[in-house]
Amino acid sequence: MCDQQSLRSTLQRIDGAGYGAYKDIRGEWKFGDFTLHVDHVQGDPFAAPSRLRIAVPADVAGLPRDLWANSSRKVGLEDYLVRALDRAIPQCTKGSRGSGKSGRFSVVAHGPCVLRRTAMSVGEDGVEAVITCGLPAAGRRVLGKQATAMLLDELPRLVTGALMWTSLVQDEVYTHVRCTEDAEALRAQLRSRGLVAFVNRGAVLPRASGVSERPLSRGAVPFAPPESLEITLERPNGPSVSGMGIPQGVTLVVGGGYHGKSTLLTAVSRGVYNHVPGDGREFVVTVPEAMVIRAEDGRNVSGTDISSFIGELPGKQSTARFQSENASGSTSQAANIAEALEAGASALLVDEDTSATNFMIRDARMQQLVSKDKEPITPFVDRVRELYEAWGVSTVLVMGGSGDYFGSADTVIMMHEYRPYDVTSRARQLANDQRRAETAQPLSKPRARHVVPKSFSARDRRGKRVVRADHATLRLGNARVDLTKLHQFVELSQVRAAGHILAWVADNIGEQLSVPELLDRVEAQLAREGLEGFVPARYGDLAEPRRFEIACVLNRVRGLQAKPSG
Fold first, then answer.
1. Are 180 and 75 in contact (CB under 8 A)?
2. Is residue 492 within 8 Å of residue 484, measured between CB atoms?
3. pTM for the full predicted model
4. What domains, with CATH codes, occur in the chain?
């Protein structure tokens, strides 16, 4: 292992050389308080930046042991350090120098959710951080002096400012870690209390705008639970927390337009993740197996059994093994439900605004005009009760335009001027029997599908692994997966991770496995090795997705062959 003086000499030697000379700095360099690993050097100043790994020994970092004493605290601490590093970069570094992406340090982009990320690891050996660095160039020539300033002056300041206990705002670190632990503790109580979700008193649910995850700062109405639904949960790091419990079963969220119905459902959907202090949704928690369901015109469906929701199609086309490269709104929503159940979902989160109307309801007058023998769809209103009674799958449904769900609901919450009211009794009084149920046969569990090995690949025509993501698309080999309708990915880093996980599946699993078995295999690998077990090198831009989002990506890969058994 070479020291920092050797690195200085190397950078002086290659000053002015072609950009490829930066390859000479790959390897380990020992600094006074940490070790720098240059794991990857970019090919030119316009390429993806170079990847650096910084290892700080435990006795140097000085992080108190109680900050990472259990899994939730460890994730919270690592999340905090990623954010501290991000804040320190503009304070400790100059920024752009030279051509392309020269001169920039960066750490993985992050939002308000606390996720397990590959950018940071804390353990007995100390702290290890993964960042990227645009090595400076003039055109395609090495700027050795500027690189020396970056790696030998700015980087040590960055490490000291963000990864050393003595430099951190210590009360803030404890607040962050305890908040994560408390949210985990609240979520762990939901099932035993018969709840799907919990929204704490005082929560700030609305966001600053439709494209922002920041809480609305002006005019936000703090959440106040209706007395009939108010419960209290305990947390390890502070007094008990009161709020509204959303019970298991069928819950309707009703009310006028712009009164907060979809805002509540969005907060519940995000409650499968923990949030940072100050987000406003820190103690909004939801069972981990909750999935957002919506219509998705044009999506690919491979062998999914949707027969409980949609019967035989014209031309005697069976829906027990439904196949389509361009599914309609109703068939895509039916497939999304069947695939959610296949992956193990225990709660469905549905908003009428993003649903197919003909899948959700057929009112009494439409039933009179179009008889059941002419309509293959069994509307969701006639299955939602059965989903809970037969399989224990709850539904939280935003519904502003139809009262036909009143008779199926256990709980009806009305949002009015952003405040919730329990109107269950009144809704039951208004429920009537004008429409006829259209369940021609009992609800049946979708047949298990087996993924055909090698029916998809993450490699291009040259055999190179390709996993690239933006906010709309994941490129997996030669396939492009549309992500625009998947609302429970909260960071791009999760999308990248899902892509690498499926690349690993394609390369390493050669046997036919059912979708649940495949997801179980992935979760076992995650438990053993973390996300690092799915990638060929130590990347710092990945965050752990749930099994449900992995399944969503898998199911949308065009060319996938998934065949029901039997």
1. yes
2. no
3. 0.95
4. 2-168 (no CATH), 199-446 (3.40.50), 449-564 (no CATH)
